[in-house]
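Sequence, please.
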């Protein structure tokens, strides 16, 4: 095993080192064919009930806990709902667990719970169970952590499963808007830099948007939400799983000027910044136009676009630059900026 001796923040950043930890540690001991797919949610079939379910879980440690466009509670609900939705399931039930430090203001907890309830009601998902732990005060550590688990049900009319194995040469790649807004908003909210820029996180639940796509459009091969590691790492994971090439066009990918400017000042790459309200869709070419039409009908997809295509060669992910050259987009090795979800 080639793992390091101690865990670092890079092992939780969503890139190559996190994937190595999962493959060489967790898959080694928790060997299971469903787990081995390493997808946003586990797709589970229950023959006796003639039903398919999706199941997922995630933990949230973002700092600060309140940021423009959201908070740790909204992030927790959106993240879990989105992990279910990109697998084609309708989110139904959530479990929520809180780890709270002694001395945490009750007003902050109420604000977080209100935010969570508002998002859950919007997408018609029920919070049905949970757990609470209070731990000793420590000013140097986070005040609250949230873990959410979710169950989704596949509609009877959705017969096909989504996955990298369905992707074919000639398929097109779509996204529902610009990239890097969540991580940049959190970075600005920390106040570590004297920037005057204003930006809101794109944190949003995507289940209604995706549900409309699935009801009205055929030809979707796979969907992923590009959270930790950003668009580049998500595309790299797709390319690796499909054993194909993905070429994306820099001119067709939206990066807001404030995101681009912060990245240039701090030496960050927007293609590796986390998003919390975006979905990457790989679809057959003949269906892409209709999918784009339905994306743009929804407020969360107004800036959606076709950004690339699937190729046999070269394999991996390649960015077609504004100058027309091809630049490799490799999976993020470690981290650019910690704790953005």
């Amino acid at each position: 095993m080639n793992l390091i001796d101690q865990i670092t923040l890079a092992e939780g950043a969503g890139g190559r080192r996190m994937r190595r930890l999962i493959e060489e540690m967790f898959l080694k001991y928790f060997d299971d064919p469903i787990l081995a797919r390493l997808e946003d949610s586990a797709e589970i079939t229950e023959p006796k009930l003639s039903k398919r379910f999706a199941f997922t879980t995630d933990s949230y440690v973002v700092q600060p806990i309140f940021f423009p466009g959201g908070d740790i509670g909204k992030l927790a609900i959106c993240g879990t709902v989105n992990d279910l939705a990109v697998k084609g399931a309708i989110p139904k039930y959530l479990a929520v667990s809180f780890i709270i430090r002694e001395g945490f203001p009750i007003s902050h907890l109420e604000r977080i719970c209100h935010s969570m309830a508002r998002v859950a009601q919007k997408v018609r998902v029920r919070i049905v169970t949970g757990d609470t732990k209070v731990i000793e005060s420590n000013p140097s550590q986070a005040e609250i952590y949230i873990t959410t688990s979710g169950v989704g049900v596949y509609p009877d009319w959705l017969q096909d499963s989504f996955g990298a194995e369905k992707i074919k040469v000639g398929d097109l790649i779509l996204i529902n808007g610009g990239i890097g807004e969540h991580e940049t908003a959190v970075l600005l909210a920390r106040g570590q830099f004297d920037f005057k820029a204003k930006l809101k996180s794109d944190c949003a639940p995507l289940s209604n948007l995706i549900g409309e796509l699935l009801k009205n459009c055929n030809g979707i091969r796979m969907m992923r939400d590009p959270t930790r590691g950003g668009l580049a790492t998500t595309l790299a994971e797709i390319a690796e799983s499909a054993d194909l090439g993905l070429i994306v066009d820099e001119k067709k990918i939206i990066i807001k000027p404030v995101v681009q400017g912060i990245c240039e000042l701090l030496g960050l790459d927007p293609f590796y910044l986390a998003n919390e309200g975006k979905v990457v869709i790989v679809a057959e070419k003949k269906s892409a136009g209709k999918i784009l039409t339905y994306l743009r009908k929804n407020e969360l997809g107004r800036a959606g676009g076709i950004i690339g295509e699937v190729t046999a060669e070269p394999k991996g992910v390649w960015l077609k630059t504004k100058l027309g050259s091809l630049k490799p987009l490799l999976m993020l090795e470690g981290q650019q900026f910690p704790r953005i979800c």
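Residues 116 and 147 are 12 Å apart (CA to CA).
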